[in-house]
Structures are given as C-alpha cells and as structure tokens.
Amino acid sequence: MIETFFRAKRIRRLSLLSAIVLLALQSAGSAFAAAPYDIQKGLEIGGVKINCVRIDMNNPAVRPVQISANGNLVSTASVAEMANAAGAFAAINGTYFEAYNGVPVPWGTLIRDGKLLHISNGGAVVGFTDEGRLLIDRLRFDFLGYVNGAERSIPWRINHPSEEPDAITLFTPEYGAAVPVAPGARVVLVSGGIVTQISTGDFWTPGDGFALLYGPAVAYLADERFKIGDSVYYTSRISTTFTDANDWNSVKVAVGAGPSLIINGQITADGAAEGFTEAKINTNRSARSFIGAGEDGRVVIGTMAAATLSEAAAACREMGLINAMCLDGGGSVGLTFEGKAIAAGRNVNNILAFTADASATASSPADGAGTVNASANGQKISVNGAESVIVQAYNINGNNYFKLRDVAFILKDTARAFGVSWDEATATIGIRSGEAYLPDGSELDARNADGNRAVRPGTAQLLIDGEAKTFNACNIDGYNYFKLRDFEVLGLTVEWNEAAKVILLGTD
To answer: Residue 365, class by beta-carbon neighbours within 10 Å (0-12 exposed, 13-18 middle, 19+ buried)?
Structure first.
C-alpha cells in the first residue's frame, strides 16, 4: 500500500511554490555548480522560516559521519565545535540526550562506521547506506549474546546506564568513560572475544571488546552463564516498519530521533504513534531540526524557527522531499555551514555531519584560489598488530592523507608489499603487487612537517597491476599523498582503534 501510494504521488505536478523552492535550492550561490553542496537561508514555506543546506549524496566524495562530543557518549559540545574538529563542511544536531539531569548520555539510536552504539525502540531513525542513500523508518532493535556458540544472553540496551535492578546492559569502548556498578550487580568483561573477568567493581570497557552489566536482580545470571575463558560475541537484529530490513544491513551511519515527517512519500507526522508524549514535540509550535531527501537522492538538513509537526511535514513536502524526519529540537537546534554557525543552540551530545574529499571542495578555497588547508600531524600506524610507528600525515577536510612511499615502506616486509614507479611520459604512478619496495630515503621523514599549509587538491593517475585507477590526491613537496582507505584495493584492511588512537593495517 505504501509503495502504491508513493508511485501515485510521483506523477503529481509540483505546486508553483514547490518549484520555486527547488529552483532556489539549485541555483542559490555560484559555488554549487562546482561544489556538491550549498546553503539557502531565509526561506519561508507555509509561514515556516527555514535555513537549510542541500547536499549532493550522489557525489562519491561526500561522506556522512556520526560524531559524539569529545569522542565519547557522555559529553557535550557545540555543533560548530564538533563539526570543525572533524573538518565537516556542514553539520546538524543529532539525537535526543539527557540535557538536564545527570550524565548527558544519548537517548536515540546511533550507528557509526556500521557499528551500533546506542538504541531507542521509539521515534524514527535516519540512516545512510554505504552508497550514500538515505533511509528513514521506525525501527526496533534486539540483541542476542552467544557463549561458546550458544545463545545465552539478551541485553536490553547498549551504552546506556540504568538503575533498573533487572537490566542487562551492553557497553562498548565507544562509551568512553568508567561505568559504575551498583551494589549486588555483576559485570562480565570480554576482551578479544574471550571472557577475562567477572566482577562487582566499576569498570572501563576493554578497548578490543565489550562488557555485559547485569543488574542486582539478575546478577546471578552472570555466574550461571559465563566463566573465565569462554568465547562470547553478540549480534543485533533490526525490525522495520516501512523499509526492507536488508537495506539497513548496509547502513554505515544512522541517528535516531523523530518524529518522522515523511516516509517513502507518505506523511507520517504522528508523535504519539512513535512513543512521544510531550506537547512540545507532538502538537506545539517548536523550533525544529530536520533531515530529508528528495527523489534525486540529494539530502537537505535544516532548521525551522517554529512549526507544528504537520506544518513541518507540509514544508518538507513542498521542498520536494520524499523522506524527512525531525532531529532533536528546542534548545538543541544547531546548524553549521563551512565553519560558521547558522543556528547555535546549547551544547549537545552528538551531531550528524558531512565531509568531502579535497577535490570536491576546491571551489571553496581556504588559502588562495584552488587551494585548501592541509594540517600536518603525526599518526600512529600498526601493521598486523606489530608495534606502531609514527607516520607523517596531512589532515585535509577531515581526512588524513599519507605519502605513498611511506605506506609502501611500512608494508615492505609483509604479504602486501608493492613496488612504486613513475612514468614521466604519461604522468602515471605505477604500483606492482608483490614487488620489493626500493626506498629512496624520504620515508618516515617528518622534517618537512611545518604545520598548516595551502595545497592544491587534485587527482592522481595510477596503474595498479596493469589496471588504471584514479584517486583523489594532494602533492606536497613533490610527493603524492593519498587516503589509506584507497589502498584497500591492494587487499589491505584499515581500522581505527579509538582507545589507542592508532590506525590498524591488516594484510590478511
């Protein structure tokens, strides 16, 4: 029924107002033709005042990121502060959080880099697949814990402390703080997939594992179901309302809040149906943050000065959005664009931000025409778990770029070693897997790391085992710098260990 409704609505003619709004979003500012984003301020649709940023998610250079204040789930910071630290060109406040009493933990769903960090079985969730497609739905999450291959535990929630005596709570390293254990409660610590400790003391979650906290009323289950040395893992299951659950398996970034406004072309603005009870959310005119997408896949994030749910949904429809939902509102409303606060509310727990590769933002130079800012920094990299080495990098628009020869050097004694050559005639870098790398003496040399500098972003042509590839790159001091994840084409795995602040390169 929903799909039939959606298809029928596709053929309706846009109202004159809708056409004007879409034209304004497409043409405002001369930079949009070159950059995959633009801002529109001072819109008024149906009496609702709107500031919004429009983002072309069809551009592969654009990436959504979920960011938590200070790298943990128990802090707050301004939207602008978090966005600028991540090098994001735009950001908006995220899910609800405990803003008034106690630890400011989130209340809604959070998914970062494909990992579920927090859940709420109410409201709505906006997610981005690995292809950048926006999904919105009312979701339910369930956890299953396995001990030595058998299902033995059903956690209630994740990374959210509870005073309920029968609560079973899962904690991951992303929580980022010590967790207090109530009298009579028990905690099972799992490191590297193995139970290492069962105790009653306050704890930090192992950096390479997780913890299961059993409240006082169910603490006996910890001793009944676990023993030191057991193999333990957990899985999560998503139940959907309007969308295909399989689509959510490819979601890399998600933020839950709500209420939803439009899903698959159908207006769904019903706070009570999603578990909301407060008039300021369900019926009153309130300041609101929102996110949505049109049929063309372009995403809009923005703020509304004051609107009811029905007014917000109508405005989003007039903007041509077929999916839209509210984020945290009221005093939390915050929106930034290119380093400037468009709306500045209170400090919040988390944001949804958007970054772009250097080549995508060349139309917005920081240090001169056609240039962007590159900030030098040393980054720890560990190859196959070995002792980490410091590798010189440059942060450009939120992404670390590494010298090709440094990467080749630290991999020269592994199964993924590769040789590097240069063809002057075709201006092509050659990479040959399995060849011995021949150092030129420049490797791991940080003497030229002189802080911030202006660089000209562009692309580099590579011939990898005879196959032509084009990567975004920057040339600094005559050397080409690339993102590490570009080298996953060579069979590498790239992971980030937040606890140790180290990049993990794997060659298996």
So the answer is: middle
Q: What is the pLDDT of residues 93-148, one digit of tens each?
A: 999 999 988 899 999 999 999 999 999 999 999 999 988 999 999 999 999 999 99
Q: 113: helix, coil or strand?
A: coil
Spatial CB neighbours of 216, under 8 Å, sequence gap ≥ 6: 165, 182, 183, 184, 185
Burial of 288 (0-12, 13-18, 19+ CB in 10 A): buried
Facing residues of 50 across strands? 43, 304
Please report which helix (H) or strand (E) contains residue 420, including its range: strand 418-423
For 145-167, the pLDDT digits (tens) are 999 999 998 999 999 999 999 99
> Can you give the three-state secondary structure of 159-216, one letter per residue?
CCCCCCCCCEEEECHHHCCCECCCCCCEEEEEECCEEEEEECCCECCCCCEEEEEECH
Instruction: Yes or no: say if 366 and 372 are a contact pair by the CB < 8 Å rule.
Output: yes
Residue 415 region by backbone torsions, left for phi larger than 0, else alpha for psi between -120 and 50, else beta: alpha
Among candidates 343, 332, 326, which has minimal Cα distance to 281?
A: 326
At what angle are helices 16-27 and 309-318 packed, to 10 degrees? Answer: 70
Instruction: Give the number of residues written for the chain.
Output: 508
* Residues in Cβ contact with 151 at an 8 Å cutoff, skipping those fewer than 6 apart: 144, 145
281-295 pLDDT, tens per residue?
Answer: 999 999 999 999 999
Q: How far apart are CA 226 and CA 167, in angstroms?
A: 17
